[in-house]
């Protein structure tokens, strides 16, 4: 259908951004469109197994590797992904290193065959807008977030209501289809950057990203019409229709190995936690994972672990301590925690094969930090969720899960914990909060049953969206047609 089209995909090298863009690359290639994904050597290795299988299956997927300038930017030698940063205070160095990819990319651009018809880039890589301009291509952005988030962000930027409220004063987000109440301290960094020097530095980067993204040709969203239709419709009006919801991306992984290796080539589909899940009753286990970047303080981790233990519900808890690993391990050992919960709970250290775990019949609920990927993966798995937002736009995603989809129960987090805020904020959520939310979600009462039914409904809708004739399949074709028309007309933007 579109065999002369070629899309150049430039992801931000951070799991929550790169994982969905790899899925997206495969979805686009399945429509006979050539895609080239630009990544660095270590990421090519990390995501290579999944990409190699896609290529071996005959999909027109290419990988363009560019060396990542780590040492020039004060980063450790092999640090090529945000989750490899020894400290998030190096975030700006990481973005500076990304910007240095512009020249090497421009140098090889003319070797790309057929000539690319558009660039789809993570919106946080503002320099890619210059590349698109230089080569006269439409610049399509992706930022891994929902239309709820896009609409809420747009409305706050326009209305500026958040500038007139106190930090913890609840206010209604303007112009949304539902009445959604939040506090300023729950808003993402663009509106709530914290008081640290690093926070202020990142605020200016975010403002620059925002200013640049407004000039994008269009936006691709990892969502589907049936999940947030009223939000999508409103956002489309603002963007002259160029909003293409073509997800949920995670559902594009059909076989267990692709599910297991999504985000890490080291992961395996007979991981010990899958074997353990095989021994558990249907829908009995809570899977608790706070994404790829969150590093709980030891005190907060202890509350989470004890809350799960108190609930007496079987669980898998993913531990990502980063620089706090030693302290967390010391507590686990001194407490004899793993022995105490033996048979009923297990810990996974490092990378968990999340999508594989979520699709296991023994899992009955997902305790999540509400990163958008995790949120939509939970929705695709048909699971009720215990929501514990941490940073960025995760409180919006909590509202979407709890209020809009009706499949989530809040654990009770009150404010954003900025990643760059290395000292964290002690304890936000207590063990009894975790235990209560877990018990509520897993109960057999009518409220929990309704939640489970809604979750099941969205799982079915998510599956249909990507099938032949489904809403996302249709949107993907509309996107391809738009780029094809644009290319044939020989235009560049808008
Ligand atoms: N993920 C995973 N295993 C882990 C941690 C994360 O597979 O141990 C995946 C998860 O499935 C999701 C992504 O990493 O696709 C995390 O993205 P999300 O937007 O949920 O959160 P972030 O990591 O960006 O905070």
From TrEMBL:
<comment type="similarity">
    <text>Belongs to the UDP-glycosyltransferase family.</text>
</comment>
<dbReference type="GO" id="GO:0035251">
    <property type="term" value="F:UDP-glucosyltransferase activity"/>
</dbReference>
<dbReference type="InterPro" id="IPR035595">
    <property type="entry name" value="UDP_glycos_trans_CS"/>
</dbReference>
<dbReference type="InterPro" id="IPR002213">
    <property type="entry name" value="UDP_glucos_trans"/>
</dbReference>
<protein>
    <recommendedName>
        <fullName>Glycosyltransferase</fullName>
        <ecNumber>2.4.1.-</ecNumber>
    </recommendedName>
</protein>
<keyword id="KW-0808">Transferase</keyword>
<dbReference type="Pfam" id="PF00201">
    <property type="entry name" value="UDPGT"/>
</dbReference>
<keyword id="KW-0328">Glycosyltransferase</keyword>
């Amino acid at each position: 259908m579109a065999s002369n089209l070629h899309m150049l995909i430039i992801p931000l090298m951070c799991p929550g951004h790169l994982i969905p863009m790899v899925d997206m690359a495969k979805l686009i290639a399945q429509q006979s469109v050539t895609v080239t994904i630009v990544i660095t050597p270590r990421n090519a290795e990390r995501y290579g197994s999944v990409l190699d299988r896609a290529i071996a299956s005959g999909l027109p997927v290419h990988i363009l590797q560019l060396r990542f300038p780590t040492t020039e930017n004060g980063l450790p030698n092999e640090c090529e992904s945000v989750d490899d940063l020894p400290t998030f205070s190096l975030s700006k160095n990481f973005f500076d290193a990304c910007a240095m990819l512009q020249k090497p990319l421009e140098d090889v651009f003319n070797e790309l065959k057929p000539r690319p018809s558009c660039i789809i880039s993570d919106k946080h890589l503002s320099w890619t807008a210059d590349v698109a301009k230089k080569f006269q291509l439409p610049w399509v952005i992706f930022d891994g977030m929902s239309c709820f988030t896009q609409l809420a962000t747009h409305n706050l930027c326009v209305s500026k209501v958040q500038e007139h409220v106190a930090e913890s004063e609840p206010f209604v987000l303007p112009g949304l289809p539902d009445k959604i109440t939040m506090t300023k301290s729950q808003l993402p960094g663009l509106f709530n950057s914290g008081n640290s020097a690093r926070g202020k530095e990142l605020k200016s980067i975010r403002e620059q990203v925002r200013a640049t993204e407004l000039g994008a040709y269009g936006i691709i969203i990892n969502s589907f019409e049936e999940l947030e239709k009223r939000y999508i419709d409103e956002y489309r009006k603002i963007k002259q229709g160029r909003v293409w919801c073509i997800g949920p991306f995670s559902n594009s992984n059909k076989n267990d190995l692709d599910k297991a290796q999504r985000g890490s080539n080291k992961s395996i589909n007979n991981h010990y936690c899958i074997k353990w899940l095989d021994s558990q009753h249907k829908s009995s286990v809570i899977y608790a994972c706070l994404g790829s970047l969150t590093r709980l303080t030891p005190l907060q981790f202890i509350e989470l672990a004890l809350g799960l233990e108190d609930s007496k519900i079987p669980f898998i808890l993913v531990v990502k301590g980063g620089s706090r690993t030693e302290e967390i391990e010391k507590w686990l050992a001194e407490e004899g925690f793993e022995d105490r919960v033996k048979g009923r709970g297990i810990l996974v250290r490092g990378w968990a094969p999340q999508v594989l775990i979520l699709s296991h019949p023994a899992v009955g609920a997902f305790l999540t930090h509400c990163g958008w990927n995790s949120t939509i993966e939970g929705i695709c798995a048909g699971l009720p969720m215990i929501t514990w937002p941490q940073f960025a736009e995760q409180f919006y995603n909590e509202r979407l899960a709890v209020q809009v989809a009706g499949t989530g129960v809040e654990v009770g987090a009150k404010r954003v914990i900025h990643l760059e805020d290395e000292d964290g904020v002690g304890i936000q959520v207590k063990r009894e909060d975790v235990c209560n939310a877990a018990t509520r979600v897993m109960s057999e009462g009518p409220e929990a049953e309704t939640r489970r039914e809604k979750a099941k409904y969205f799982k079915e809708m998510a599956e249909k969206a990507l099938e032949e004739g489904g809403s996302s399949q249709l949107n993907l074709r509309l996107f391809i047609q738009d780029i094809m028309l644009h290319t044939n007309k020989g235009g560049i933007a808008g």
